[in-house]
Amino acid sequence: MHPLFALPIFSLLIAPVWGFCGTSVNLIFFYMTWATLVLSHSALRVELVGTATVRLLCYALPSLLFFLFDILTPSAAVLLKTQGEYGLPAGNKRGKIRRKDLKVAVWALFNLVLGVAVQGAIEHTLTSRFRKVSLVRVTLKLPLPWSLVLEIFWGLILREILSYIIHRWILHTKNPLARLHAAWYHALRAPYPLTAHYDHPLAYLIGRWLPTILPVALWRLHMVSYLVYLAIVSLEETFAYSGYSPMPTGFFIGGMARNTEAHLHSLGTGNFGPWGILDRVMGTAVDDKFVEEDGE
């Protein structure tokens, strides 16, 4: 990433949380940074570097740190695991670092990069070859606060619906893609850091990447709304798949983490949506007994 381009991206991300400046100063600085970014670079570059930056800061780096903590200090990590030793990558706190664990980490990071690359290829094809509008609105005009909230809200709701539909009726039915998903992701004993993006690349693109990017394209979110939306999704994946019991929001993220564990331990018989809302409505919620029994 070119340093002159990286500075506006990082400034854009941290401007809203600067507490030592007044609100007006923050808003002015935020808009000036955004204007500099939009006027200095192409919409495609803004979108792709913004996507990569959010994924790096909100998912890749924290998940990688959690993963290293698990494999390098298992005796300490086990104290934070909901399922104790069973939730560690090696399966016990005396286990050595295995090639299989490193393979999971490498494939997860590869899939993350693959998703950004596919997004870039689609955007380039749409805007350059077919002269269509981009999936994300990169404009000088910023969305109003209420519009920002609504865009993010509907994006997350549509992601929940798409994730449930694809996960249940594509990745868990009798077809080649479902077999790849079963052979890769469901070969794991328990979720642990980085496993949110671990799967066969094709199954990953259909089951993880598509439900995340499709709401953005259908609603055509503004770039700022998209960055916040992607940050929420990335942080959700980081903590829900960490296997840890302490969570930033115990009820919501903690509940998602337990649903994720139960889905894996039940061999994919339920808990298909990220939040579990549609599973409750559709009667596919898996009882926590799977987690409790495996953690004993």
Give the arrangement of secondary structure elements.
Layout: H1 3-14, H2 23-40, H3 43-72, H4 74-77, H5 99-129, H6 145-169, H7 176-184, H8 201-219, H9 223-240, H10 252-265, H11 277-282, H12 289-295
Task: Describe what this molecule looks like in 3D.
The protein is mainly alpha-helical and 296 residues long. 65% of the residues lie in helices and 0% in strands. Helix 6 packs across helix 9. The longest helix has 31 residues. The chain is globular, with a radius of gyration of 20 Å. 38% of the residues are buried.
Keywords:
single chain; 296 residues; mainly alpha; 2 domains; 12 helices; 65% helix; 0% strand; globular; disordered N terminus
Order of helices and strands: HHHHHHHHHHHH
Number of domains: 2
Class inferred from helices and paired strands: mainly alpha
DSSP summary: helix tally: 12
Write a concise synopsis of the structure shown.
This protein is mainly alpha-helical and 296 residues long. 65% of the residues lie in helices and 0% in strands. The protein has two domains: 1-41; 42-295, no CATH class.
